[in-house]
């Protein structure tokens, strides 16, 4: 079974919140400036599809997935 | 000969980009209003790579920047540093000061309020005469009420900012008219900022007022940012609502599908993404200038060259969206470029999405007999703005 680990490049994040919209159980946004917060950097298989989508739509290419 | 740009759409097929654009090579040049010939990028993959490439800049003060209009070119040297004219890392810092109100969770919290605003407007329209103009009855008031509440501007003042912002986004405006409208809007928002500094409320201008007090932001920055949010925040969503309704009425099978699944939030969210792709309302290209030489498709974009990204090109790129001319509410479309891509991707996108999700899940369910009150050919498009839209949408039910 594949495992997915999320690497988040915070300085690049422009806080558009696409990740929090697509995968709300995995990404949140910081209250004061909207910068993304990874709630779970090794999400379970049920989240893999939406996490891949979040990485694909992130406009700043700030979400990297290490799949093993 | 570089093709003149922006290019008129084909009247028979008004939602799709002009055929010349779809047929261009991946790296082309176009001729813009000042006679200059910036590079023209139309492919989805190229836009993704370049809109995140630090060798491209949005610094509109540089000579050679491919301005949208003569008015914009005239205004550019007078703007303070803003999210719309700075590059990372300065852009990142500025954007983080204005981001909070547009975060997904704060916008989600507004959903019930947006629903109520819409329900009341629908009640009003249904109680009034037929035909009605959907632009004035629903499309324009929904985002206008919402953005004024978010900013903390009285809705009663809407006439002032609706007329001023219409002048500011139009391509038919002289630099003088544009400066006058900008001045009027700025003076209005400056007064509002002063009021909020004295008596803050729970709104974005009050949040900016607090930042002005602590020195995190200057007053001119706050006023310019508030104008940008106001201008960007209502005509765009209004265009999506009226054009989206027209597109669905032209595609009755898709409208029926949406109506039957309007209780399914995932389906509705997908519908909104596909309509954003299909309509790509920002139709005058987003603009950058090269900071260094960039090789692409065997040619070189030189440092100092202007670059224009045609968003509809990417959104109708068959390599990314098979059969792009078809409105298909079931296709995965989230990777569209209707909000741009890269660091400047739309600040208000979550707000626009929630507004559109509320409207598209409600309007056709509550008014199942909604129909055009004039032949399609008589619907008047408004093509002169940064985003296209409709002057009026006469409907009956
Ligand atoms: C469906 C509606 C909308 C569309 C299609 C749209 C489209 C766009 C596009 C294409 C850009 C990128 C410009 C560039 O990269 O040069 C942008 C940026 C922006 N949008 Fe929107 N927009 C919409 C709604 C809104 C709303 C509701 C707001 C405000 C609340 C807003 C505020 C902004 C701002 C402030 C920027 C500049 C961001 C930056 O440069 O960092 N937009 N929008
Ligand atoms: S989608 Fe990317 S840029 Fe947007 S909040 Fe998430 S990580 Fe940040």
Mind explaining what this structure looks like?
The complex is a heterodimer of chains A (68) and B (397). Chain A is an alpha+beta fold. Chain A has one domain (4-67): 2-Layer Sandwich (Alpha-Beta Plaits), CATH 3.30.70.20. Chain A contains 2 helices and 4 strands, in the order E-H-E-E-H-E. Chain A is globular. The model of chain A has no long low-confidence stretch (mean pLDDT 93). In chain B, helix 12 (219-250) packs parallel to helix 16. Chain B contains 16 helices and 13 strands. Chain B has helices at 19-22, 44-50, 70-75, 90-98, 104-108, 111-127, 134-139, 141-151, 158-169, 175-198, 204-214, 219-250, 252-260, 265-279, 311-315, 349-366; strands at residues 3-4, 27-31, 39-41, 56-57, 132-133, 286-290, 294-296, 299-301, 306-309, 371-372, 381-382, 389-390, 394-396. Chain B has a single domain, classed as Cytochrome p450 (Orthogonal Bundle), CATH 1.10.630.10. In chain B, a hairpin with a 7-residue loop joins strand 2 and strand 3. Bound molecules: protoporphyrin IX containing FE (HEM) and iron/sulfur cluster. Protoporphyrin IX containing FE (HEM) binds at residues 83-84, 95, 228-229, 232-233, 236-237, 240, 281-282, 286, 338-340, 344, 346-348, 351-352 of chain B.
């Amino acid at each position: 079974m594949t495992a997915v680990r999320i690497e988040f490049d915070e300085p690049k994040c422009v806080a558009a919140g696409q990740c929090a919209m697509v995968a709300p159980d995995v990404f949140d946004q910081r209250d004061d400036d909207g910068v993304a917060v990874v709630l779970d950097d090794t999400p379970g298989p049920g989240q893999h599809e939406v996490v891949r989508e979040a990485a694909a739509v992130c406009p700043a290419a700030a979400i990297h997935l290490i799949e093993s | 000969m570089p093709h003149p740009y922006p290019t008129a759409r084909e009247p028979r097929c008004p939602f799709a980009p002009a055929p010349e654009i779809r047929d261009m090579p991946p790296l082309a040049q176009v001729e813009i209003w000042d006679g200059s010939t910036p590079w023209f990028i139309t492919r989805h993959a190229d836009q993704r790579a370049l809109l995140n490439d630090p060798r491209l800049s949005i610094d509109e003060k540089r000579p050679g920047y491919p301005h949208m209009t003569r008015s914009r070119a005239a205004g550019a040297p007078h703007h303070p540093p803003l999210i719309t004219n700075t590059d990372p890392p300065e852009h990142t810092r500025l954007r983080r000061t204005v981001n909070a109100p547009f975060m997904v969770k704060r916008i989600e919290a507004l959903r019930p309020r947006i629903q109520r605003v819409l329900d009341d407007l629908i009640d009003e329209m249904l109680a009034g005469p037929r035909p009605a103009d959907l632009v004035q009855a629903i499309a324009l008031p929904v985002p206008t009420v919402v953005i004024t509440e978010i900013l903390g501007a009285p809705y009663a003042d809407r006439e002032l900012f609706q007329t001023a912002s219409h002048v500011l986004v139009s391509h038919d405006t002289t630099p003088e008219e544009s400066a006058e409208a900008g001045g009027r809007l700025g003076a209005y928002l400056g007064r509002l900022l002063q009021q909020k500094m004295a008596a803050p409320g729970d709104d974005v201008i009050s949040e900016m007022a607090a930042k002005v007090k602590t020195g995190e932001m200057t007053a001119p920055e706050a006023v310019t940012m508030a104008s940008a949010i106001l201008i960007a925040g209502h005509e765009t969503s209004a265009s999506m609502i009226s054009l989206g309704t027209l597109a669905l009425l032209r595609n009755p099978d898709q409208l029926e599908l949406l109506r039957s699944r309007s209780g399914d939030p995932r389906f509705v969210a997908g519908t909104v993404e596909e309509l954003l792709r299909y309509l790509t309302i920002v139709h005058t290209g987003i603009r950058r200038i090269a900071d260094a030489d960039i090789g692409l498709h065997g040619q070189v974009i030189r440092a100092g060259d202007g670059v224009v990204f045609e968003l509809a090109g990417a959104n109708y790129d068959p390599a990314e969206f098979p059969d792009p001319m078809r409105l298909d509410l079931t296709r995965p479309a989230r990777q569209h470029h209707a909000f741009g891509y890269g660091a400047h991707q739309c600040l208000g996108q979550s707000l626009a999405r929630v507004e559109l999700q509320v409207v598209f899940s409600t309007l056709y369910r509550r008014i199942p007999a909604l129909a055009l009150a004039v032949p399609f050919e008589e619907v008047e498009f408004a093509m002169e703005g940064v985003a296209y839209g409709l002057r009026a949408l006469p409907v009956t039910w």
